[in-house]
Write a structure and sequence with these properties.
The protein has helices spanning 11-16, 57-82, 91-94, 99-109; strands spanning 22-28, 31-37. The protein has 119 residues and is of the alpha+beta class. A hairpin with a 2-residue loop joins strand 1 and strand 2.
């Protein structure tokens, strides 16, 4: 049995990610959707602050969901500015997309694994 050697990122490679357009195709209802996005630097992150300490859990969750959506929009917009020809999803079209599609796009871009439903 051979051991797999882990590669180590260099700082230059990590910094380059903020200028590199990442792409992926996402399957949705039997058709493919091309996505493009860029990682953000801290100064490009949406500034929405923390929810009020007295906010209910539901209100706090809503605040963080809004922040995550703004972050995904910023990542897509950054790539669209760098590569307008590859822009399928725009700031204007984002809110008109079906919620389940926006959820799938967000999970893909944020590299989070949504639990698979048995439904």
């Amino acid at each position: 049995m051979s051991e797999k050697k882990n590669e180590i990122w260099t700082i230059d490679e990590l910094v380059a990610l903020t200028e590199t357009i990442q792409t992926k195709e996402l399957e949705y209802n039997g058709k493919m959707i091309p996505l493009q996005w860029c990682e953000l630097t801290e100064s490009e992150e949406p500034q929405m602050g923390l929810p009020d300490a007295t906010a209910t859990e539901e209100e706090q969750n809503a605040h963080f969901a809004k922040l995550a959506a703004a972050r995904v929009e910023a990542m897509i917009s950054k790539a669209n500015e760098k590569n307008p020809e590859g822009a399928l999803i725009t700031k204007e079209s984002w809110m008109r997309l079906p919620t389940t599609l926006r959820w799938n796009i967000s999970n893909t871009i944020m590299q989070t694994d949504a639990p698979k439903s048995d439904f």
